[in-house]
What does this fold into?
Amino acid sequence: MLTKKQYKLYSFLKTYAKKNKFMPTFDDMRTHMEVKSKSGIFNLLCYMEWKGYIKRHPAHARAIQIIKEYENE
It folds into this structure.
């Protein structure tokens, strides 16, 4: 189960990727989520990965893969 903030970011990732064919930058995510630091986005992504909704590839820019659909969609 995702928190409200995690779900907001998850939805943004799905929508952005579908529209642009690639994932958003940390700055795009930070702007959308209205947070001041990139560490806030990093923490949200870490928890989403830990919960099994996304997979990040650390050696590549914008390398986030959605691997699990959210149950309530």
